[in-house]
Each structure stands twice: as structure tokens, then as C-alpha cells.
Amino acid sequence: MSDHRTLRAGEETIAVRKDLRVPMRDGVHLAADAYHAPGDTPRPALIAMSAYGKELQALALTTPPQRRPSPMWDGCIEAGDIARVVREGYVHVIGDVRGTGDSEGTMIGNYNAGGVPQGRDLYDVVEWVAAQPWCDGNVGMIGISYFGSMQVLAAAERPPHLKAVFVSGGHFDFYETTYHGGVMWFMPRAAREGRGGDSGIAHTDVKSRMIEQYSPEELNRLVEQRLADPDVAAWPNLVHVLKYPKNREFWFDIVMNHLDGPWYEERNPVNLAANTDVPVYLQIDQGRGWTVDGHIELFDVLKGPKKLDIGSYPPMQSRPWIEEHDTMFRWYAYWLKGVDNGIMDEPAVRVFVEGTRETVTGAQWPPKPVAHAPLYLRPRHKLSAEPERMGGEHAAPDGFYQAPLTVTDTVQSVSWRTEPFEAPTELIGTGAAHLYVEIDQEDTNLILRIWDEAPGGARQLLTSGYLKASHRELDAARTTEGNPYHPHTRAVPVEPGAIEEYVLRLYPFAATLLPGHRIVAELSNAEPLADAHNALLPPDAFHLPVGRPVTHKIHRDAAHPSRLVLPFTTAGAAQPHPAAH
């Protein structure tokens, strides 16, 4: 029996049906709250489902939106602006997925692929909501990040009453969400454990898929094998997770699965969405390249009506989440209310271009024709459109030595920069970095960040690339110029002292270098604890550093043409045009 009451939000009165029990086909009941305007008039419904707890989402009614770096920013308050949803004439249904919050059942593994698939549950939720007397049978979904991922899983099941979804900032390929170029990212830990700016999952009955799948003896063997990685063994939190996994089941599963393959692919929403025909609007902001990448990949496989909107830097929206609501309500007015507002007459792809701060449109990604062109690493820390002509005996390598962060807080790096650009130069798309590197260990991280440096030295991140050296193998069949593809299905140790070519994928971006600005490429094997970009991210948004001392030599001579390969739009300048040396 639900609890039907009213509450005040500012000057508005909102009716709320608390603790609705939504039946699943296997007899489990999920918990949900439904917020709407007073009265029994049937309305379209927008469903928000997550593992973060529906009671946390209710803070959207009482907590002013926070932007990073506010310490009050909580990455899990993501269901949307409840008061506005109600004001726009919808029922806002906020629920807990199974095994979390007030819901029954057990969740086994991320996206519940080892238990009941979340997409199947979401199908049942959509159809139950559509049948309620307070819903007019038209259902959409709402929410950012985890909530966005749930929308894709629901749409892939094609529930008859799900008329459209609006996905903002979702994460899809979960291997790529957690291992960037094979380098572990800590942000999923924060979402699952609840630390560093995230309340985390509202655990009630969640289990590790690894613990369910393996005998204790076999699991102990696999844990010791994972701890043989010096990067993992040097990080206290990971040692603790691997030795005591019971309260960190999801994070334990992710740490234990450091290679891509069936464990991730069977739960990959991009794979599940290949036959989706539900109308999908995809929105993502620049600054976190792997999520931009996932939205583009998803856009390319969707079969039904679709939109892709890539917004401006910086990367973190407010919490409680309030952005993008204007566009979302236009989308839902068209698909759920039948309002012909022209949104489907607009171009399918919209991209905000940093620098000029203009929006460009097109029918596909990239929205303009591009030609990939190189910028070569040269002596004296220069980037140039012309390759190096001297051999290694004269163009000696650049380099840096990085001690483990267990003994130093200093992150070393080496950088190269162009001369100032003379004319506006636009870049839109993916890129690559071909780096010839010699290391004295079996492995390292290569973290490359590409900056737009203004006169006076102010910098804004354009894009980044990550590659664990042992994951350097390329899939030749899927690799194209400026768009390399690494399978990440095995790790191959590096021969110390050997010069290897490493091809880093640079995440999609869109920017115009204005006159007087430079491109700066900055290479390290760890990340600064704080800088102009990381200050905008939650405290745990870093990558696992290398747990051994490594000397890096970056060769960039005639025989080793280390270079960036960047996507210059052909409508403007097809080649880079920095001032002459």
C-alpha cells in the first residue's frame, strides 16, 4: 500500500505517492515514488531508475544545485529537477533497482548481468507505470549518468509504452568506462563505494558476480594473481578490496576483470542497443572524453529516430542535476504529448566548438568533413607540421623519470608545443598520438593531455589519451588514420630497453585554436593531484598510477616519427597553420 501525500516545493504543491510496489515478472517488487501535480488527471510519466536510492533523489526538492568544485556536489543526485518535471505536466517516477534502496531482490554484478538483467526489470517498470490510472500511457525516462545508462538498457528491450528516452551523460561500454586504454580509472569506485563526492550505491542485497561464479580456492588464486601487478599492490584501497571484497562487491568485480572480453561485452549497452528503434536523444558535455566516445558509438548503432548533442566544457553538470531540461522537455513534448515543435526538423547532430564558442550542426559525427594531419614532436619541445630529418644520434630523445607516488607527490611530465597559430584553426573528431617510447620496466602508463594554451599561459584541456604499455596491441582491421582501436584482451609485457611504437587514441573533441593560441601536448605516466582541469572533477577522478620507478625516453627522430594526428576540418584549414619557426 503506497502512502499518498502532498508536499511544498517553494510556491508549488506537489502530490507524491510514496513507496509504490512495482511487481516484476519473477515476483520481486521494486520500490518507487511518483511525484505529480495535485489531482487525478492522467499525465505522461518520466521514469528515473538507479541503484543510488530514491530518497537521495528527493533532495532535488530542498538542495540548491551545486557545481564542482563545491564540496556539497554529490554525483549520485541525478534523477532530475522534480519540481520542474511536475510543473511541465509529467509524473516523475523515481525508483530503486533490485537489490538496492527499498526494493526487493538481489543484484549480482554490474548491470545485473549475472542475475536478472536490469533491462528486463525496466521493461516491467515501464509497462506497470503505463497501466496506472495517473499515467496516460505515454512513458519516457529521465536522469543523467547511471540513470542515462538505464534508459539505454530499457530502450533495448522495446517496452511498448516507452515512447522515447533522453540520455544525458551515460556510460555504456563498462570496460571503457573503467579502464581507459587499459589504465584503471577510480571514479567507478566512488560511485560504488560512496566516497570523494558520491553517496554511492544504496546497498541492500548486492553480490559480486566473481564470488558467485568461482569457488573460494579458485577465487583466492585469481586474487593473488591480480595482486602480482605492482600497480595494484602499491595502492592500499585495492589491496583492501581484493582481500576483503564483501562490502565492495561491484568494485571487486571491476578490479578483478582488467581485460576486455565476454565479462564486459555481454552487458555492454551499445551491443544491446543495436536493434533499438525507440527515439533516443543523446546529450553529453566535452571534458570527459570516454563518455563523449560512448555517446558517439551509441548514436552510430541506433536504428530509430535519434539526436546527438555534444555540449561545452567543463565536464561536470550540477547535482542535483538541472541542466539540459529545456531541450529534454522539447523532446518529450514532441514524442509524449504530440506537440509539433519542430525538433525533428533540426539537424541530427549538434556540437559546441570551444574557442569560437559556436555550435555546428550536421547529419552525422563529425558534423563537418575532416582531414587528419600530423604535428611532429621535434627537439626543443616543439610541435611542427614538418617531420624531424635528423637521426637519433643528433635528435636525442626527450624523457622523464617517474618515481612511484608511494615515495613522492610530484608527477613528472614532458611537453611539446606549437608556435602560436596565425589564423583560426578548427578541429572536430577523434585523433591519435604515435609515440616511440623506450622504458626500463615491463610496463608503464602513457597519459597524454592536449591543451589549448592562450597568450599569457592560461590553458584549457582539449582532449586526452591513455594507454597502458602492455595493452599496446592494435586491431589492424578496425584501426584507421586518427582512430586507432585496441582490443585490450591481453597484456603483453614490454621488453625493457626496446623502442616501441605506442598509438594512443585521443578522445573526440571540438575546438578552434584562435590566433595567438598554441597546442600543447603533455605526456606523463600519472596525473597531477590538482590542476586547471582536475579541479573541476570529483576527488576520486584519477587513474591508478604506476607502482614502480620508470624512466621514459621519447624518441622523435627521422627513424622514429613521434607525432600527433589531429582532425582538422576541411571547411576551414585542412592543415595546421602555426606561425613559422
Description:
- By secondary structure, the protein is of the alpha+beta class.
- Strands 16, 17, 18, 20, 23, 25 and 26 form a 7-stranded antiparallel β-sheet that branches.
- 52% of the residues are buried.
- The model has no long low-confidence stretch (mean pLDDT 93).
- GO terms for molecular function: hydrolase activity.
- It comes from Kitasatospora saccharophila.
Helix vs. strand class: alpha+beta
Weakly predicted, low-confidence segments? none
What distance lies between the first and last C-alpha atoms, to the nearest angstrom? 76 Å
Mind summarizing the main beta sheet? 7 strands, antiparallel
Instruction: Bin the strand percentage.
Output: 25-35%
Overall shape: globular
Number of helices: 15
Helix content: 10-25%
InterPro entries: AB_hydrolase_fold, CocE/Ser_esterase, Galactose-bd-like_sf, Xaa-Pro-like_dom, Xaa-Pro_dipept_C, Xaa-Pro_dipeptidyl-ppase/CocE
Organism: Kitasatospora saccharophila
Pfam families: Peptidase_S15 (PF02129), PepX_C (PF08530)
Keywords: Hydrolase
